Amino acid sequence: MNRRSKDIVASKLMLLATIFSSLVIFIMAFALFQRSSPILGTQSLSELFLTSSWHPTKGEFGFYPFVIGTLSVTGLAMILAIPICLLSAIYLAEYAPGKVRGIVKPLIDLLSGIPSVVYGLWGVLLVVPLIRHYVAPFAGATTTGYSVLAGGIVLAIMVFPIIISVSEEVFRTVPFEVREASFALGATKWETVKHVVVRKALPGFLAAIILGFSRAFGETMAVLMVMGNVAKAPSSLFDPAYSLPALIANNYGEMMSIPLYDSALLLAALILLLVIAFFSILARVVLIRVERRSV
Amino acid sequence: MNRKFVAIAAVVIIIASVVTYNYFTSPEEQTSTITVSGAWALYPMMVKWAEEFQKIHPKVRIEVSAGGAGKGMADALAGLVDIGMVSREIYPAEIEKGAFWVSVVKDAVVPTVNKYNPVYEDILAKGVKRSAFLGIYVYGNITTWGQVVGRPEITDEIDVYTRSDSCGAGETWAKYLGKKQEDLKGVGVYGDPGLAEAVKNDPLGIGYNNINYAYDAKTGKPIEGIVIAPLDLNENGQVDKNEDFYRTRDQIIEAISKGSYPSPPARELNLVTKGKFTAAAKEFVNWILTDGQKYALETGYLPLSEERRAEELKKLEG
B29-44, pLDDT tens digit by residue? Predict the structure, then answer.
């Protein structure tokens, strides 16, 4: 093969590989849509998502409790994670000496490598009893400990690495000249950080949060083990709840045994896929624009 | 560049040949594999059977994994495993999809409470009526331990635990109450061991387990921290001599075989496959129904009666 044909072959192969990996998500979405059409045919979307009765053997598939459960635990995780991640990212980007950053960053990235089921076990062993014996009595409630709060705490820790590392990168892209200008005007370091750096980096930070949100939204094993899996929309932080991914993981065994159940679970899977795809694309678009601006 | 390419290619070829070695050896040297997955209830028994069977058939490899009866059924119907372990009865919808099953041993689901329960002694002395379980698990009108034992001054709330995964234990316990697993209220915990842990860690907890997760395999007594709640079968408000068989695993197995412990929550455990058992899997199941039965008692299960065994063998062959 002469050099020119090698060139063409190599580029076409890479194109094929790229097309294949980008097509996968469309193939998945299409397959899920096909398999969930039976249940979409029998009930309207509003019926499915606004009714709260989940009794598959009677043909009742109300997803409302699971949607609320997923949104509550993910929302709580974000509320817990955002302040800590913002402050950590600022410290790592602006204040930390190089050596400290060199140790802390890998340590935080280590958190993202820990398997979900390990987080779940740790949650069951530590977080659930903590909530049952200390937090709930302190707040005047009684609970078994398996609750939205437990899920929120475990999820918040799981999304630390992604939010902190993306935010830290974003803060580093703020050009030094901007900081210098602020110092020249007599601002202190904190004033600079607060009014200049964070302001400029805000879109990127939002993107980091969105990425963290997607990760938390789809998290299965850890949430399944600490949330209590009760198919009723939670009315307080100490109530147990049931998330969409946990629903799928717990019940895919019954799929074959009850009519329409497989269709319902695959619809849940399709919803998860679409929500996460949407948020990931949104975050990517924002990040690209941030990078473009800083060039 | 060329040398590196040759070196990498050589490594890839070596690894590939090691991995696919099995597929190229002649039939006599080839090992056959039987894959088994499903109910936690059957898992200890299946592991023992696999051990013993592989001792006399060294060319057969048996891989066993748990995950719940629902998973076993789903895997078997999808053709992902040769044998699915299902610790409940098979439903018509599953038979329509091609499920074929044989029963192999019997065991039971027992209700569990924590050793440090405030009314621990009352429960052991009076037992718990079926209607009380219905009130706790299904209707939700029994919420305090005082209500369970008839001492209204005790207002400690009951922490109800059930199984979150689709499993035989849940279905069987629900069947005893005349309902389905999805009707059982309570915090859903994953897996048999998970439920036992949850009750062990909560003095006000109530749960249910297959006997091999409620009792310690070595000592034969209930596992540390857990007490089996006796069923008040004749509903007379106390645990009579003939209702008192929960102290050791052997006692409860005897009670199951005599019928003193009702079925449900005692039930036969089944192995399912899609269509029919064939080849190595068929041989294995045949062995389970003949020589394999002798390992049941020592592992904590009840072997099938002679007639049931003959029935199931006929089903397997026929």
Answer: 567 889 999 998 899 9
Residue A275 has pLDDT above 90, yes or no: no
What residues in B contact A54, CB-CB < 8 Å? 182
Contact between chains at B70 and A242 (C-beta distance less than 8 A): no
CA distance A76 to A159: 12
pLDDT digits (tens, 9 = 90+) for A9-52: 999 999 999 999 889 989 999 999 998 888 888 888 888 888 88
Burial label for B284, CB within 10 Å (0-12, 13-18, 19+), is buried
- Cα B46 to Cα B60: distance, rounded to the nearest angstrom: 15
Judge whether B84 and B66 are in contact, CB under 8 Å.
no
Amino acid making up residue A131: I
Average pLDDT score, chain A: 88
CATH number of the structural domain A66-294: 1.10.3720.10
Rounded to a whole number of angstroms, the distance from the CA of B175 to the nearest CA of chain A is 14
> In the predicted model, is pLDDT for residue A1 greater than 70?
no
The pTM of this model reads 0.81
Q: Tell me which of B75, B157, B164 to substitute to probe the interface with A (most A C-beta atoms closer than 10 Å).
A: B164
Structure ipTM: 0.77
Residue B72 forms contact with A (CB below 8 Å) = yes
**Token pair for A95:** 């204040």
Residues of A at the B interface (Cβ-Cβ below 8 Å)? 54-57, 124, 129, 132, 142, 144, 146, 224-225, 228-230, 240, 242, 246, 250-259
Q: What is the mean pLDDT of residues A189-216?
A: 88
Q: Where are the domains of chain A?
A: 66-294
What are the C-alpha distances in Å from A214 to residues A28, A245, B56? 18, 12, 52
Token pair 């140790």: residue? A103
* 3-state class (DSSP) for residue A174: coil
Supply the DSSP symbol for B40.
Answer: T
